[in-house]
Write a structure and sequence with these properties.
Aldehyde Ferredoxin Oxidoreductase Protein, subunit A, domain 2; Aldehyde Ferredoxin Oxidoreductase,  A, domain 1; six-stranded mixed sheet; 43% helix; 11% strand; Aldehyde Ferredoxin Oxidoreductase Protein, subunit A, domain 3; single chain
């Protein structure tokens, strides 16, 4: 009896209109599921040199191994493909919560591989064992919201789960997203568009068997009790400091709580967020969300009891989801009109656009406008003035429709930066042509290293729950004891107590490896790190100071064993994460990546922070290169090329990958003993 997995990989050829099915068990032993199996499938199913918009570029949807098993916060699906957003293109993936992953498994599928290009706009309807290709011509040109409504009405089933693109994906906009229940991420929508694929609809009724249902229930009970205990601790700390007790508006809505009122972390201590330097902006407090939510909150919703995706109602705009990032986006643009940002967020979700990267791009344009490097002539008469919600809205329309300067922006912000000239390009804070998703690299060098070596080639959350502390603020709130414990644990875990100081390089290579393997484990299992942060002691902001965790926490391990009955130890999961990382790296190596491609944009090295507590900081390029070399050594990679060695592949049971790369002369030569 197989527990936890659905047991099948579904392969779909849009061009031929064919469907085939194979067992997933041949992959799950080494790669478990989710991101892991996706990575191996991507390496096998893709041909070298195939571009992101080529019909033969596969797009792979994988359900987290623990999704659909009843464990709280295990909700993620992973979509893997070649990135249309990167420069140059490479391996990428996005993770999203919601209900799609569970529905996939209830329909009988752990993974879905889609290749080819349909002759006309098409959507795929999957209902258990039945797979149908249906005409989407009537949906082409419609936004995600109308698409979802029409499909549910057409199929007479409000319970179907939908992945869909809007007009941005149809128009092959590089920042376009694939949307699911207001959840998206990295720009993958153009891959759907290039395949004439409007949507994938899934309905399943088979269910998933778990090995120990009683253990699953017990784990959930403990998670809920820990969550209640953490909430009580937050209230206690607030009372101790004489602050108002947090309401649901402070605690919910993803990481909006951090912007509304944060009890563990002073985000302003970073001194900078992208193009808003030094937090000299005096209107920062006007962007906090708690008071706004009191009049705009419509209904709490989400894929776990944390309910992070609350519905918002704004007069004249309508009802939608205000996700967490828009509150950081307010900072990026020096906007105080939260209603306008909600309108923009809703619009981007409907068009299917990566809201984080686009808002950073608009912030970049506003900085150039302030410096006199661009005028309204460069932006079709739109004044790129700080705080302008109208500039953001108009840019969204132009981008999605490929109109005016939006046509250039649609091919990626790097193309626009190059068109604007050398001075503008020099100020472009990016990695591989993608704007940062909100992480400041000049004050957080662990993030800089993680972004440089990330196999996903993505700026999205490159370090996950980073093990770092902001001591000045933590002392203010009386956590001296916890700070001392954190330094002691950092020395034991990472070899140097300075490893948890955000702008120090000591200990960062091992920290990055630990954090990145932790991200892979979460993505393999389908775990939401935000949810786990609210439901476990291990990941709560208070406990993290005194507990630097391994890549695998007890909740993940206990849940995996309860569901599958395999009774493995954490090293089994860490090995699967390392194996996954090396296969993702192998894809990039096969496509021509070398050490020189493990980098971040020159702007991070050359443009210092101009004000605030971190004035003058840049990412030191020499230190980054030293850290890369150490990280390569720790991973068993060749320092000169940045490629995994044959011995590393073989140690991880990846002889087939090594053989493939050896034929292409992409295995580093053995060095002679000195």
């Amino acid at each position: 009896m197989v527990y936890g997995w659905a047991g099948t990989i579904l392969r779909i050829d849009l061009g031929m209109g064919k469907v085939s099915k194979t067992p997933s068990s041949e992959y799950t032993r080494l790669f478990i599921g989710g991101r892991g199996v996706n990575a191996k499938l991507m390496f096998e199913e893709s041909k070298p040199g195939v571009s992101s918009l080529d019909p033969e570029n596969p797009i792979i949807i994988g359900a987290g191994t623990l999704a659909g098993t009843g464990i709280l916060c295990m909700t993620k699906h992973v979509i893997t493909t070649r990135s249309p957003e990167q420069v140059p293109e490479g391996f990428t993936m996005q993770c999203s919560g919601g209900s799609l992953a569970a529905e996939m498994k209830y329909a009988g599928y752990d993974h879905i591989v889609i290749k080819g290009r349909a002759e006309k706009p098409t959507y795929i309807h999957i209902e258990n064992d039945d797979i149908a290709f249906k005409d989407a011509s009537g949906l082409w040109g419609k936004g995600v919201f109308d698409t979802n409504t029409i499909l549910r009405e057409e199929l007479a089933d409000p319970e179907v789960r939908i992945l869909a693109i809007g007009q941005a994906g149809e128009n092959l906009v590089r920042l376009a997203t694939i949307e699911h229940e207001y959840r998206s991420g990295t720009g993958l929508g153009a891959v759907f568009g290039a395949k004439n694929l409007k949507a994938v609809i899934i309905r399943g009724t088979k269910g998933i068997k778990v090995h120990d249902p009683e253990a699953v229930l017990k784990i959930n009970e403990e998670l809920l009790e820990t969550h209640k205990k953490n909430e009580r601790e937050v209230i206690r700390l607030a009372r101790e400091r004489g602050e108002p007790e947090p309401s649901r508006y402070d605690k919910g809505y993803g990481t909006i709580g951090a912007i509304a009122k944060d009890y563990y972390f002073d985000y302003t201590e970073m001194g900078v967020v992208g193009y808003l330097e030094g937090f000299e902006w005096t209107d920062l407090d006007k962007t906090r969300g708690a008071d706004w939510l009191k009049t705009r909150s419509y209904h709490d919703t989400g894929c776990c009891p944390f309910a992070c995706a609350g519905l918002i109602s704004v007069p004249g705009v309508g009802i939608g989801v205000m996700r967490c990032y828009p509150f950081w986006n307010l900072w990026q643009l020096k906007m105080t009109d939260v209603d306008k940002m909600f309108e923009a967020t809703k619009l981007m979700s409907d068009y299917g656009i990566d809201n984080r990267n686009l808002c950073w791009t608009v912030s970049y344009l506003m900085k150039l406008h302030e410096m006199g490097l661009i005028t309204v002539k460069d932006t079709d008469g739109i004044p790129m003035e700080w705080g302008s919600g109208d500039a953001l809205i108009q840019t969204i329309h132009k981008l999605a429709k490929r109109k005016g300067f939006g046509a250039i922006l649609a091919d990626g912000p790097l193309q626009l930066a190059k068109k604007l000239g050398p001075k503008a390009e020099a100020l472009f804070l990016q990695s591989r042509g993608q704007m940062s998703a909100g992480d400041e690299l000049r004050t957080q060098v662990g993030y800089a290293l993680a972004a440089a070596v990330d196999t996903r080639r993505s700026t999205e959350n490159p370090l996950g729950g980073a093990y770092q502390i902001w001591e000045r603020y933590l002392k203010k709130i009386g956590l001296e004891k916890e700070i001392k414990e954190a330094y002691a644990r950092a020395k034991k875990t990472f070899g140097d107590e300075k490893a948890i100081v955000p702008w120090k390089w000591e200990g960062k290579p091992i920290m990055v490896i630990t954090a990145q393997y932790g991200i892979v484990v979460d993505d393999t299992m389908g775990a939401c790190f935000i949810g786990l942060g609210k439901f476990t002691d291990q990941r709560s902001p208070i406990k993290q100071l005194g507990t630097l965790p391994s890549p695998v926490g007890p909740v993940i391990l206990d849940s995996f064993n309860a569901v599958t009955g395999l009774n493995v130890d954490k090293n089994y999961l860490i090995s699967a994460a390392e194996r996954t990382w090396n296969v993702e790296k192998a894809y990039n190596v096969r496509e021509g990546s070398t050490r020189d491609d493990d980098t971040i944009g020159e702007g991070w090295h050359k443009w210092p922070i101009t004000s605030g507590p971190h004035k003058g900081r840049v990412v030191d390029k020499a230190e980054l290169e030293k850290a890369k070399s150490k990280l390569y050594e720790l991973r068993g990679w060749d320092v000169d090329t940045g490629w995994p060695t044959k011995e590393t592949y073989e140690r991880l049971g990846l002889k087939d990958v090594a053989k493939n790369l050896e034929k292409l002369k992409k295995i580093p030569k053995k060095k002679k003993a000195s």
